[in-house]
Amino acid sequence: MSYNRKPVYNKNTMKSRQTSSRKKKHRKAFKIFLLIFLAISCATTGAVCGTIIGYVKTASPITPEQLKLSNFTTFVYDDTGENVIAQLSQNENRVWADYDEIPQYMKDAFVAIEDERFFDHEGVDIIGLFRAVFNKITHPTRPMQGASTITMQVVKNITGEDQRSIQRKVQEQWKAMQLEKKMTKWEILELYMNIINLGQNIYGVQSAARAYFNKDVSELTLAECASIAGITNNPSLYNPFTTKGRENNKKRQIDILNKMLELGKITRQQYEEAVNEKLEFADSNSSEVKNISKQSYFVDQVVLDVKKGLMAQGMTENLALNMIYNGGLKIYTTLDSDVQKAVDEVFTDSNNFPVANPSNPHPQAAIVIIDPSNGQVKAMYGGYGEKKGNTLNRATQIQRQPGSSIKPIAIYGPAINEKLVTAATVIDDSPVYMLGVEKGLYPKNFDNTYKGLQTIRDSIRQSLNVVAAKLWRDVIGPEIPLQYLKKVGISRTQRNVSLALGGLDEGVSPLQMAAAYTPFVNKGLYYQPITYTKVEDQYGNVLLENKEIKPVTVYDEEAAYIMNSMLQDVCTSGTAAGYGTIKNAKGETIPTGGKTGTTSENIDKWFVGFSPYYVAATWYGYDLNTQIPAMEQNQALNLWNKVMTKIHSNLAAKEFSKPTGIVYKEVCTRSGELYTELCRQDPMNRAQGIAWAPIRTEMFIKGTEPKNSCSVHVIKTVCSKSTDLYGRNVLANSNCPSSDVYDKIFIHRKEPYYPVTAGAPFPDDFIYDYTEGEYCSIH
User: Fold this and answer.
1) How far is CA 371 from CA 303, 368, 574, 670, in A?
2) Which of 284, 404, 509, 722 is catalytic?
3) Residue 173 is part of which domain span?
4) Is residue 693 one of the residues assigned to a domain?
5) pLDDT at 290 over 90
């Protein structure tokens, strides 16, 4: 036997051995990978467990105070601190309902759609959690859903911790498990159904039942229970008070009914009846829901402001509202009961709201009255007639276009304060094409006429759109108005000419407009408006206080006074004449100033006016942006006048405080310069039979008064036989006979006006201008 023979290899043997070798290598590599994976997994698990333990250790336990819903009455006082104007007990927007009062349908609906294993888990639904995690892994771009139990939602609502983080979620789960040890399932479900947000500032199923169906919660049908249960998932999306919201609400209701059927909570027949039941939702503004809120418009706003203040200190909205309505607070407001009484009388008197077209919805109005010396809101009213239910507060919640009432705070006030113009500065109110000739005249004045050379004072008095627009374009520019609006609480970014005319990208409320005018009365100082001065808890501890509020300097005192003076002209001889003047009970005239505002097509009417005592902003119009009929055109002014007359009845007539830095000069109103004898012979006044000359004693900030004499009134030698295209006499030449030559006084524009297009209008003083450089062509 020979042992020296070499082994014989064929192709198949070689391939088999190579394959075997690779498998060994793969197995070895897999073993190494598995060991590494296990090591990493163990380390990761340890780290994760350590992190979770750390999260749990640092979690603050739920306190008894957070679970306790007290029933102490909150008292709201007027500005005397003695008169109670409201008692808030059991939040009318979150009325407590005991577990036994709530239909079983409602309980089953919430459990079915929000937490079907609620009665089986101990605060955390492990099955739901793993399903949510798996869905997140398989669909990473989608938000993780389905992991939150009813108990966890209660925890989130009462703690206010809702930030998106793993730490918060872990702590929420731990707190939920702790809560399950302290409370029974029915107690947790009862608490849940009383604190959940159900839209429209409504919390809890009892308030929702009253608001959406005008029923007590115990009277709700299966279909209605499912409808309400669906809202909490997304109150805005499923809002039954909007058309789209009702469509979405119906789809959500059917999903809930399907789930209840699947879980055996209802029969097939009950399901079919509920799906086919027509839901009769209440009208959000009807008297049928008046029991939802019996608060006045003012108290509504106080609640919002106090809620905001409490939330700024770290409370959730739910906790803040619970404290307001059940915490036994003492809220000291800025309301003047006498002023509010006067407002109530005017706004609930149907004679003050004539209806021109009975087929239209009823006209609405709102008013806010502020003490300009401190920004305290003294009264407000948010709609026509008696307040019914949890309705829209138009005094603070509407956003409507202000029209010309924006001009003093966006254009004229800033321009005066920046010393870019004076009250005597003259702007040519002549046709202009600010959007391009091809788009026609823009802007136009309200009466489609053009007054010619006009001072700033006269332009404000007559509310000339063209002058305000030219001032914006040629003098003040787009940035300064935005800066000044921001100072008075109206933040905008709009940089086009419509800002100067009150066509804003976003509207304003009467509260904003009233506050924005206060610097004209208060030496140029603006205070952010407030509705309360102090809030105390039931033990007398101060929770919130509006004290030492620093004013914002908007205008120099002299600029504010000049604006005040010009706005007084609006009331005595301008667009507010007849309504802008008020008298006290003795018949003495109370000095007033203000500005009207009308939007395109007469959709909105405004008057923002003031006395030495108060600033009041009034809006009048229709909720659906309906055109205001002719007979209602003056209603904003009329309401303002009636309210202000009442509240000034027992107040003395006094003048506005005048600063020392004001000087006076006699000027020509055609030029804004010192008058000359030629000004006394003004050709326009003479032609119109006006006896007085266009000369005025005007006020100026010291240092801005004119130094030069009038350059607009000129005397020229003309030929009586020769005229230009417009019928105006032209200058005489050396060949004109003396019999045809005479001296004539003209109004001479610095920039001549010529019509751009055929048929274009002319300013009223155009015929009294002369053509420079054009001489007689006859002689």
Assistant:
1) 20, 10, 25, 38
2) 404
3) 93-292
4) yes
5) no
